[in-house]
């Protein structure tokens, strides 16, 4: 059994930043890195928009530096997964995938959100080589090139409009014969001469290889069966994200999409002593620098809570 003043669950920018700040506050936090240590950034080839890296940095390298910084200040980073947690009373009790029990006075949940994917083998193989789930993160690499966005909701439309400011042409691939986005977002897409909506279509294959990256996509019309190939340099999947909150088993207040609700501007959740940071409570921005800032907020909230 391990006793700690602060248990941090998650190891992305939010989790590691929370570790840095709680460590510097002499709280001796225990941080569980989860199934994907470092989070989604570890499968990103290069990060150019995180402050302090004027020449960009490999995602895995950046997260390794954040981990080292957290450990420097006394954060105990464990390579494991919190499988269950009881938030019914303080101190809270959690169990990891090795059967270890952790008793914590406070908890910071920074488990992030996972992008929803189409389920294609080529999508997994070419992730980071032209396939992306974040136009804001990666759109810069496709200036004056042709790209595609999959999805018909607000997120997909926002991504398409954003990419149209950078790219020569944007195809928006929509499974139905209408957009699900708000009327305002629909108008922005349908009146943008750089965006071509490909209706009633699904992607059957993303073409390319590990050397050249994405070169195109094969589509099938769901009504006619007609097959079409698009020549592309980038392929953006925008069919939503799933917050990693299943392990909480309904013990915290969540919104309709499963994101943890926090009492802005703080990181406090519906359970006293439990705080949240990063993409697990942020359906809007999903940026590393924002997550890091929220991790700082959560750590400071924990320190103030324990000092009360």
What does the main sheet amount to?
7 strands, mixed
**CATH class descriptor of the largest domain:** Alpha Beta
CATH topology name of the largest domain, in short, is: FAD/NAD(P)-binding domain
- CATH homologous superfamily label of the largest domain: FAD/NAD(P)-binding domain
Which structural class do you get from the secondary structure elements? alpha/beta
The poorly predicted ranges are none
Number of strands: 17
Number of domains: 2
SSE pattern = EHEHEEEEEHEHEHEHEEEEEEEH
> What is the mean pLDDT?
95
Number of helices: 7
What does this structure look like?
With 308 residues, the chain is α/β, with parallel strands linked by helices. It has 2 domains: 2-114 and 241-307, FAD/NAD(P)-binding domain, CATH 3.50.50; 117-237, FAD/NAD(P)-binding domain (3-Layer(bba) Sandwich). The protein contains 7 helices and 17 strands. The strands form 4 sheets. Strands 1, 2, 3, 4, 5, 6 and 17 form a 7-stranded mixed sheet that branches. β1, α1 (13-24) and β2 (30-32) form a beta-alpha-beta unit. The longest helix has 20 residues, at 288-307. The radius of gyration is 21 Å and the shape is elongated. It starts with a strand and ends with a helix. The mean pLDDT is 95.
Key traits:
308 residues; FAD/NAD(P)-binding domain; 7-stranded mixed sheet; 7 helices; elongated
Structure summarized in a few sentences:
The protein is α/β, with parallel strands linked by helices and 308 residues long.
């Amino acid at each position: 059994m391990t006793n700690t003043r602060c248990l941090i669950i998650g190891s992305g920018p939010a989790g590691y930043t929370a570790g840095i700040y709680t460590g510097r506050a002499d709280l001796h936090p225990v941080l569980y890195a989860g199934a994907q240590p470092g989070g989604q950034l570890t499968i990103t080839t290069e990060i150019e928009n995180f402050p302090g890296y004027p020449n960009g940095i490999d995602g895995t390298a950046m997260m390794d530096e954040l981990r080292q910084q957290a450990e420097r200040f006394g954060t105990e980073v464990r390579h494991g997964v919190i499988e269950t947690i009881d938030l019914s009373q303080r101190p809270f009790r959690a169990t990891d995938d090795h059967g270890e029990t952790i008793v914590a006075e406070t908890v910071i949940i920074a488990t992030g959100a996972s992008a929803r994917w189409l389920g294609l083998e080529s999508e997994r193989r070419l992730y980071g080589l032209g396939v992306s789930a974040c136009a804001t993160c990666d759109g810069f690499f496709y200036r004056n090139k042709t790209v595609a966005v999959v999805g018909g909701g607000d997120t997909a439309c926002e991504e398409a409009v954003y990419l149209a400011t950078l790219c020569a042409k944007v195809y928006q691939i929509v499974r139905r014969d209408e957009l699900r986005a708000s009327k305002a977002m629909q108008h922005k897409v349908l009146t943008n001469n750089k965006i071509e909506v490909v209706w009633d279509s699904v992607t059957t294959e993303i073409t390319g290889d590990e050397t050249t990256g994405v070169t195109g996509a094969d589509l099938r019309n769901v009504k006619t069966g007609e097959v079409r190939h698009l020549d592309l340099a980038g392929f953006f999947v925008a069919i939503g994200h799933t917050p990693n909150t299943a392990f909480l088993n309904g013990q915290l207040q969540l919104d309709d999409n499963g994101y943890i609700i926090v009492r802005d501007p703080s990181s406090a959740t519906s359970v006293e002593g439990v705080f949240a940071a990063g993409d697990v409570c942020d359906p809007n921005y999903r940026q590393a620098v924002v997550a890091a800032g929220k991790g700082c907020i959560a750590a400071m909230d924990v320190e103030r809570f324990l000092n009360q």
